[in-house]
Design goal:
single chain; alpha/beta; eight-stranded parallel sheet; 17% strand
Length: 262
């Protein structure tokens, strides 16, 4: 089986002592590609550096909504330069909205998101969107900005069926984390609603480790547990889930046009 983990943060301190072993465990699991994402300029640079060290790892660069308060215009320019100059940068992300925390206002987040989406359009790159407790606000922004189509993925999706349909109608992919393996997960009908052809696999590691690893540090190798759950929900084999989601990721991130083609 070939798997793809479309959302990791391998630059985090949790991997500083065993990053190479973490990558090797992913290889042994069958993972052929991993996308590691920055959340500001510094971590975007770190993501690019890691992608340069490992053939299977690619990078996304961007400014996360909770980092919007300290982002400067020069950071946007530097992120653009990273995306233009580094062949293994395949997306703009992690970007979006986050209303869970109180320390970054929506007013601070929206201009950064607008610049990031504009940058993705300018460079013809997909976006990886974080949307936490801001379904209404995100959809309102799409309407105000006239976004009818957008190449990208709604990562760690936590909306309802109506929300999912909104993004699917605009041509986006949707990904779920290991949260769908938790006993207390209550939105399985949303997981079932999203067609396999529009699903991606992700861990969001080091966060949200799936059952049976819940409570431990998450890592790309554990994406197999989410794949298994998706297979159960959709009534297909795990092999089919792996094949389709890997092909979906290849198309979205244009991996046949990037370094490290497999």
């Amino acid at each position: 089986m070939k798997l793809t983990d479309t959302h990791t943060h391998l630059h985090f301190d949790q991997y500083q002592d065993d990053l190479t072993r973490t990558i090797e465990r992913a290889r042994q699991t069958g993972i052929i590609r991993m996308l590691t994402l920055g959340t500001d300029l510094g971590t975007s640079q770190a993501a690019v550096q890691i992608a340069g060290r490992y053939e299977e790892v690619f990078a996304a660069v961007g400014i996360h909504p909770t980092d919007a308060y300290h982002a400067a215009l020069k950071d946007v320019a530097a992120i653009k330069e990273l995306a233009m100059s580094e062949k293994k940068v395949v997306a703009i992300g992690e970007i979006g909205l986050d209303l869970y925390w109180d320390d970054v206002s929506l007013q601070d987040q929206i201009p950064v998101l607008e610049r990031m989406i504009a940058l993705a359009g300018e460079l013809d790159l997909p976006v990886v969107i974080h949307n936490r407790e801001a379904q209404k606000e995100m959809q309102s922004i799409f309407g105000e900005w006239g976004i009818d189509r957008l190449s990208g993925v709604m990562h760690s999706f936590a909306g309802n069926i109506r929300d999912a349909e909104f993004y699917l109608q605009r041509g986006m992919f949707i990904s779920f984390t290991g949260v769908i393996t938790f006993k207390n997960f209550k939105e399985m009908e949303v997981v079932k609603y999203v067609p396999l052809e529009r699903l991606l696999l992700e861990t969001d590691s080091p966060f949200l480790a799936p059952v049976p690893k819940r409570g431990k540090r998450n890592e790309p190798a554990y994406v197999k547990y989410t794949a298994k759950k998706l297979a159960e929900v959709h009534g297909v084999s795990m092999e089919e889930v792996c094949r389709i989601t890997t092909e979906n990721a290849r198309k979205l991130f244009k991996w046949d046009q990037s370094e490290g083609e497999f």
